Fold this sequence. Notes:
- The complex is a heterodimer of chains A (240) and B (301).
- Chain A is α/β, with parallel strands linked by helices and 240 residues long.
- Chain A has helices at residues 25-34, 52-64, 77-105, 114-130, 149-164, 197-203, 212-232, and strands spanning 7-15, 37-44, 69-72, 132-140, 170-177, 186-192.
- Chain A has one domain (7-232): von Willebrand factor, type A domain (Rossmann fold, 3-Layer(aba) Sandwich).
- Chain B has 2 domains: 13-96, Phosphorylase Kinase, domain 1; 102-259, Transferase(Phosphotransferase) domain 1 (Transferase(Phosphotransferase), domain 1).
- Helix content of chain B is 36%, strand content 18%.
- Chain B has helices at 56-68, 104-107, 113-131, 190-205, 217-231, 237-244, 251-259, 274-297, and strands at residues 13-15, 22-31, 35-42, 47-53, 79-84, 92-96, 102-103, 135-136, 145-148, 153-156, 163-164.
- In chain B, the strands form 3 sheets. In chain B, strands 1-2-3-4-6-5 form a 6-stranded antiparallel sheet, covered by helices on one side. A 3-stranded antiparallel sheet of chain B has the order 7-9-10.
- The chains are: A alpha/beta (240), B alpha+beta (301).
- At the A-B interface, α2, α3, α4 and α5 of A face α1 and β5 of B.
Amino acid sequence: MLSREATIRQxxxxxxxxxxxxxxxxxxxxxxxxxxxxxxxxxxxxxGDAGEQGYNEAHSIADAGGxxxxxxxxxxxxxxxQMMTHQTxxxxxxxxxxxxxxxxxxxxxxxxxxxxxxxxxxxxEKLEDEVALDLAVCLDTSASMRDKIPTVREAVRDLALSLxxxxxxxxxxxxxxxxxxxxxxRLVQPFSSEVNVAALEAELVARGGxxxxxxxxxxxxxxxxxxxxxxxxGPRREFG
Amino acid sequence: xxxxxxxxAPGTWVVGKWTHRRWRIRGVLGxxxxxxxxxxxxxxxxxxxxxxxxTAGQVAFxxxxxxxxxxxxxxxxxxxxxxxxxxxGARYFYVMERISGRPLDKAWPALAPAARKEVMLRIVxxxxxxxxxxxxxxxxxxxxxxxxxxxxxxxxxxxxxVTPFGKAVRQFTPTTDGAFFGLCDRRASALYDVFAVMLMAxxxxxxxxxxxxxxxxxRRRELLGRMVADKMDGAWRPVWNRVLRREIGDAPSLRAAIxxxxxxxxPKTGHRDWTATFMWASLASAVVSTACAxxxxxxxx
Lengths: 240, 301
């Protein structure tokens, strides 16, 4: 049903404000989505900062990236990150299954009687458990994030706990934006099946502006270079 | 993909495309992670609760979970109908039994110790029945447990978390999630629900500090141990300590442990508490020996 090298690719941006350095993040999200990557955004409600512009931008990034956007309190990041990842994986797989249904039966899930849709959803649920997931997390480490960094770090660790109990392979990379010195972005953790908490503790330091666009571009490059690497190695082991 | 829909106004009629039934919206019962639940009344007067989701798939999936856990005595609401409509804001929905009662967090403060014990027993019995089907609830929290104060009956709402044993947990609330506290992994099991019951009991009695979310799981676990030691009722503490030590791993053993809790205003049952007998016996012997000592001293003997 799915092609054998099926992998879901997602970017999760966690930010508390508006981008102010580098290219437009909405355009960056659109480019990523064109390559089959879904971009989700969690906007963190800041203390005092009005942030309406930031929330609008967060929604626009998610819209362009084919993902979801939620604006939450810092304490809700963990549960929200897991919920969004789950829902967008489900959406992606639902689209794939819908295309198959259309091709085979000339019907989409919505055309089936409601009680029969459950069978389609059970297939989606099974695929979600088994499909490979490549996830690049982009963490805003601009100056205003200073007191939220411990919460965000634990939320990323927590997200990995949720995802690694699936049957399918998982690879998580973590990027910080801005990076050190002149860098717009910094790769805190390359793709790996576990989150390296020690690296997060050492590398996540709040400073400077908010280069959201460069971060999304960097994450998309990382994800796509994994696709190229996988193609050179031949197809991934058989699905399911 | 970001949707901001206004809830349907009370009095709105929703007409089902497939069943040709009609439901009248009464009001909003709650807003969940993936949709809205309305109080509704069917055209023949049958009351119900209507869950509306953004996608047909989500509705169908929850409907299948509801059918999975149905049956006489099921703690979950009984499914009524699944349908679509042309009304924006209720394109895809299902209707289930409307359950009366108050959420546990609202009902808890007014419950007497004996009533609290009864409620906890009913919750664990509900879980035991679910576990017998090879599924875990995975979303045990005060807001998902409704208590009917008159009868003491307990029901669960929101079947969205119900998961076969061994599969990844689909949705969680950090303060009732064992993995968040480093107690277990985030996989559906009887143990996962048992930990959630303990965490729910703690959250009903005490407030978590705001720093909880900044701590790594092992530190959260230490904090939990201290909360159980400092804030929990002494009669219950041994039960929660045994859960923490993993000596209680499933709903039937948790039920047995809770049944053995002696609460203050509970009517006396058959056997007497041996510690009380022992205490009275030692007190009596102390009085007798003191009296003898005085009698010897005063030369009466």
